Known about the structure:
Layout: H1 2-22, H2 27-46, E1 54-56, E2 73-75, H3 77-96, H4 106-123, H5 128-149, H6 153-182, H7 194-208, H8 227-245, H9 256-276, H10 284-300, H11 304-323, E3 326-327, H12 329-344, H13 361-383, E4 389-390, H14 396-418, H15 431-449, H16 451-458, H17 461-469, H18 472-499, H19 503-520
Amino acid sequence: MYVLATLLLLFLAVVTMAALRLSRSSVSFAWLTAVLGALVAWISILFWQIDLPHLYSPSLWQPTSLFNASPELLADSYAWIYALSLTALAGAVVLTSPVRTSALNPVAWAGTLALTILGLLAVLADNPLTLVLAWAAIDLVEFAIMVRTAHSASLSERTVISFSIRAIGTGIALWASVVSAINGQTFLFENASAKVGIILLLAVGLRLGVLPLHLSYKNDSTLRRGFGTTLRLTAAASSLILLARLPFSALDPAIVPIALAFVALAAFYSAWRWFSAPNELIGRPYWIIGMSALSLAATLRGNSAGSAAWGVAMLLFGGISFLYSARQIWYTRILAGLGILLMAAPLSLTASGWMGAFPQPLIFWPLFLTAHVMLLGGYIRHLFRAGETSYFELPVWAKTAYPLGLGILVVTALVVSLWGWPGALQVGVWSVPVFLLVLSILVGFALFRFRRFFLPALSSPSAARLSRLSDLQDVIARALWTSYRILGRLFTYVANLLEGDGGLLWTLLLLVLFITILRGR
């Protein structure tokens, strides 16, 4: 009941904004509608705790011989923290939009709420069919937006490649359903076998860019703050929820050490690129991949709560970093301090992420710990950068809405750290949070005290050359682009061949060959 109420509230907000758009009402009414829709939906998710877990089955798809499962929505503790974070992100995007004059767009606000609805459907998915449908909807929305806003051939190619890779990931998830059906099982997340589990991990890795390491949009300048942040983080969260739903029995013990090795390298490399990025928007893909790698590592260690914790931290603290464009020194200090406390201290949001045993701790622990420190250090470093606009030049109402937008993300991080799900109030491996807390404070102090030293060092020509030499995703991107161009030329050649003067003869020849093959069978 409460789940449907949340979805209905967001849907009504989108419909109301569409009506206001058609009636050419003032932009302020659309903004107020979007704010109220997001905040009321966020409050309604708090009431999910009254009836958790709750399974909602809309209807059975027919025929049952073809569809052995129908779409179902499951509101459990993991869906609850992801849903609370997604709606908080939507509210923060709309509330902080007044500081970005280019973001005062009712269509973007309606798109933010609509995308949040799709994200909620993804995190509520109880079976692969529901999740794949939500994935497909999110990918189609992203593809349509990127194609429309692409202003160069290279960005168009990147859009096609990104969509293709995610479509392959979705197809691999569907193949897992086929494998399960061949074995005579109804494919549900809780009864996934080891053979199916590795397929699902590969599907999630492809969609997130972790396995293998690749970036869908390396220079993501078309979609900046606001709606671009919602799109990127929602797409990642829709894949990360699967990691929290997979049981440890679905992982082949022989594959876990190999997968952890690749994930550790991806986490370390992405964390360094995020830490050394010129600004938070250029480093946004690396933040998503780095935090996703830590979430995937927790799943590989049988720690579902830790996986969800890293995913939610990616949403909330990524939202703070990407939406914080008008700097104010006390806001910066508060956000940096809360980031250290809520991402490194015991009883914090990510404390549960360090539970579970590594197969070979001497190999993997240093890489993941270093990645965590660099991700947090990059978060602090980007906070202390110069902002795009001046906070003191904002109108009075914008000065009120802007901190409220950032505040809803902070409040959400505090709520999920202390209440409502198995990962709340967890100490984890107590020595790790204490070590991370001390090291993060030292890194934060060094970045604040000696930022004049760090900024030139990270932007020096030698560091730039090192980044270019270590740009592993460029190799994969060039290979994909080469294959894409070869296929394009092949299709163009075949099309020209069939459309030319001899096209009819070629068509008849292919038809005769096809008939001959059929008769031979």
